[in-house]
Amino acid sequence: SIAACDGYGNRLINTKVRPVRHGSWPEAQRVNGISPYMVRDAPTIGELRPRLRSILLGDVLLVGYNTQFDINILWSNGILDGFPHDYFDVMRQYAAVRGTGKKTYGGYRYSKLAVCAEHYGYTFSAHDSMEDTLATLWCFRALICDEKWLHATMDGKARQMRTLAASQTKATTAT
Q1: For residues 104 and 112, what is the distance between their CA atoms, to the nearest angstrom?
Q2: How many other C-beta atoms are found inside a 10 Å radius of the C-beta of residue 3?
Q3: Are 134 and 7 spatial neighbours (Cβ–Cβ below 8 Å)?
């Protein structure tokens, strides 16, 4: 299944997808509960391509959880033209400051979406694409307001900006 929403939680797409390469998927079915019978009349990813491209391409920031996995699937199916420059992976950013257990070389381990959502006070039914999408949006908004993430992210930016030589002249301030 595939789902997307905008930054306000408005649902842009939420549909099951009929695979063209596999007739069954027992492991995935155990996780997400979607059987081959449930997708027999669903559109293929190829049929969804124009709609998905209109949602995902252009002047947008793609936000996701374990974004690289999703981007690789979208790219391999011709929905994305390459790896986008503007994306925000909540899983990686969350792990940088609050993940599950410390790594031996610093930082934290990646956490499941349910763990991140619970940390930020959000409950949902995991492994449903729209539920996961809305949970990711909640976690994204909470993370960018999280003081620990802000300090880790912005302190480095502030140090970097202090080293920039900038001057203002009459020409640069003219309206």
Answers
A1: 19
A2: 18
A3: no
Round to whole Å and give the CA distance between 133 and 11.
9
- The CA distances from residue 131 to 7, 25, 74, 114, 128, in Å, are 15, 21, 19, 11, 5
Q: Which residue has the tokens 């912005």?
A: 154
Residue 6 confidence (pLDDT) above 90: yes
101 torsion bin: left (phi>0), alpha (psi -120 to 50), beta (else)? left
Provide the residue type at 39 as one letter: V
Q: How would residue 59 be classed by pLDDT, with cut points 50, 70 and 90?
A: confident
Show the tokens assigned to 145. 């307001």
Beta strands in 52-160 (DSSP E): 62-64, 87-89
Closest CA to 97 of 42, 148, 47, 22: 148
Inter-helix orientation angle 90-98/67-76, to 10°: 160
Read off the DSSP letter of residue 7.
T
